[in-house]
Amino acid sequence: MKFQSLMSAVAILLGCTVCFSGNTVMAQSTTRPAEPATVGQYVIYEIALSSRQPFADPLADAQARAVFTSPSGEKIAVDGFYAGGNDWLVRFAPNRVGKWSWTATLAGGDETVKRSGTFQCTESGNPGYLRVSKVNPYRFQHDDGTPFYPIGIHRCAAFQPEHDGPNPDGSWRSVDLRTWCKDFAGAINLHRLQLGLGNRHGCAVPVLKGVEDGRIVIDFDLAGQLDEMYRTQREYGFREILVLYQDMSLWGNADSAFGAGRDIEEYKNLKAKNLPLQEQYIRYIVARYGAFVDIWEIFNEDAYAPDDYLAHLAKVIREADPYDHIITTNYERPQAEWCELITPHEYMGTHARHTDAYLCTQLARFKSFGKPVQYTEFGNQGTLPNVDPVKWRIATWTAFMNECHLLFWGMSGRKVDSVERGNSNAYIGPQSRQYFRVLSEFARDLPLDMRPIASGWTDQLHIRTYALGNGRINVLYVHHFADHEEAYKLPDKLFLATGPGTFNLTWIDPATGKQVAKAEVATQGRFLNLEVPPVTVDLACRIEQQAAEEETAKTE
After folding, report:
1. In degrees rounded to 5, what are phi and psi of residue 238?
2. Which pLDDT does position 548 carry in this prediction?
3. Within a 10 A sphere around the Cβ of 437, how many other Cβ atoms?
4. What are phi and psi of 370, to 5 degrees?
5. Which candidate, 197, 205, 202, places its Cα nearest to that of 224?
6. Between 307-320 and 275-289, two packed helices, what is the crossing angle to 10 degrees?
7. CA distance 319 to 123
8. Quick one: average pLDDT of 379-390?
């Protein structure tokens, strides 16, 4: 007792905590910076743990974990991850305002390191992670209930993004990440990244280098670069999709750390010998990046993984993920309960004028499963150029008006007229970003309970219309598909199923966001008849019902 008391006193003088439990020494390093006393809601809080001894396989031979206790007394267990050297980290984003407490443990060999602490969680303005909407099965909302209407991108370069190319000499243009974020903020709000299993197939980032002597080998330098990428993108409000396995087995049999993409016997199998290593890899990725990510996409363009194997991987993710993030895969498993998101890919060979008609046929098919539809790749086929901003505008508006969402495969380092084989993808330059900002601003405060409503005219030879409404607010999109060069004036009024009332109409140009016309229109029946301004390519309209007291005041 005297020896323990003496050591405790020394520990206090040295600024560390030392405890004793049998033959186990539990120590806090004196070199780590102190955790902050306050942290914003959904802002990442990190706990550092250090071991005195090295491990031959630190990912398997030691385990870090923290248990956080919320202001209401709920306990949340969060796994830590090995960060290199003798260091482990636990990352956590608190979801409740108030005082939190935590205990953290690093256990391995004959050593156990324990720490504890508290912090105050304050309001931050961060709306939280993405969820499937509680009021509309096809939409997303944040934890705080606010809507999220995504327009996404997949970059081929994670750290030096391709951007507004080419260079003056015709070469591929790239910029630093912060420049890219500044230019894309407000236009793109969802980013997708793929992790390669020991390869860069499909522009993947190979955080997992391979399997050696029965253990997984992580590229910790690369993993650290991803930390910084996610931190930077979080500053600018981007939400994240992370693909865990990238082998594109539909298109080839590329080798990976766990086996060839089409190897069902020794790789994609519940009886595979390396399945425990696959599980360890998943737990590591979830522990390291779970606080940054909103959606887990297990595979990309995989056509060989059996259903029971995918269900098992989804279960591993769910058990490791303290945030209960959305889980999906590609190609999607729409009827599987664990698959919460339909994730089509589409590289279109159609002209901009026909994009909406074709896209609607696909959206209707995918929506039939009753789950959100989030394209995780979208662009042009090789016979078309990658620069197609009007087409991207029409596609994003069409998807939004059909309660679906697009994510483009970006290729903006250079411009191409076509490619001999494959996909020309999508150049998202200043013009496209302007178009996306107009749609994002238009949709920003629209309620999630808006659903498709009837609209149109008896003669649909020149325009196609799409409408959403909830009885109070309605929106209309008009596409002049017959001709994008000359303005067209609808010879009669358009009908829209709003129900009775008096409505304020505001028309905007989707290219600029500028107001085109305003009107006040009333109906006593089910349908509102409204005049459409001349339309060259497209128009959008917000139709908002006047409050009952406002209408009463007008009649008195």
Report:
1. -75, 140
2. 55
3. 17
4. 75, 20
5. 205
6. 40
7. 28
8. 95
**Rounded to an integer, what distance in angstroms lies between the CA atom of residue 43 and that of residue 128?**
9
Strand pairing class (538-545; 501-508): antiparallel
The model's pTM is 0.92
Q: Are 491 and 532 in contact (CB under 8 A)?
A: no
Crossing angle for the helix pair 430-443 and 389-401, nearest 10 degrees?
20
Give yes or no for residue 6 having a pLDDT over 90: no
Instruction: Return d(Cα 449, Cα 147) in angstroms, integer.
Output: 10
Q: Find residue 217's DSSP bridge partners.
A: 210
Beta strands in 58-97 (DSSP E): 62-69, 75-79, 81-84, 87-92
Helix (H) or strand (E) holding 548: helix 548-555
Both tokens assigned to 416: 């191409």
Whole-number percent of the chain with pLDDT over 90: 88
Would you say residue 30 has pLDDT above 50? no
Distances (CA, A) of 494 to 458, 513, 515: 9, 22, 19
Cβ atoms 134, 86 nearer than 8 A: no
Q: How far is residue 28's CA from residue 477's CA, in Å, rounded to a whole number? A: 60
The tokens of 418 are what?
């076509």
Q: How many CB atoms lie within 10 A of CB 118?
A: 11
| 194-204 tens-digit pLDDT | 999 999 999 99
The label of the residue with tokens 């606080």 reads 291
What is the predicted pLDDT for the residue at 34?
81
With CA atoms as reference, report the closest residue to 128 among 242, 285, 226, 234: 234
- φ and ψ at residue 100, rounded to 5 degrees: -115, 150
CA distance 140 to 231: 22
Question: What six digits make up the tokens of 91?
Answer: 């990352």
Neighbours of 217 (CB within 10 A): 15
The answer to whether 207 touches 195, Cβ cutoff 8 Å, is yes
CA 190/CA 170 separation, integer angstroms: 29
Which range has the worst mean pLDDT, 32-36, 206-210, 304-308, 470-474? 32-36
The angle formed by the CA atoms of residues 201, 202 and 204, to the nearest 5 degrees, is 75
Q: Tokens 């991987």 map to which residue? A: 313
Nearest partner of 50 among 10, 4, 82, judged by Cα:
82
SS (H, E, C) 440-481: HHHHCCCCCCCEECCEECCCCCCCEEEEEECCCEEEEEEECC
DSSP string across 22-59: TTEEEE--SSSPPPPSEEETT--EEEEEE-SS--SSHH
Contact 391, 433 (CB under 8 A): no
Q: Residue 378 forms beta bridges with which residues?
A: 346
Strand partners, 90: 47
The model's pLDDT over 402-430, given as tens digits with 9 standing for 90+, comes to 999 999 999 999 999 988 888 999 999 99
Q: Tell how strand 81-84 and strand 205-212 pair up.
A: unpaired
**Cβ(500)–Cβ(427) below 8 Å:** no
The enclosing H or E element of 379 equals: strand 377-381
**Which pair of structure tokens corresponds to residue 348?**
């279109």
Q: What span, in angstroms and rounded, lies between the C-alpha atoms of 194 and 243?
A: 5
Contacts of 526 (CB under 8 A, 6+ apart): 497, 498, 499, 500
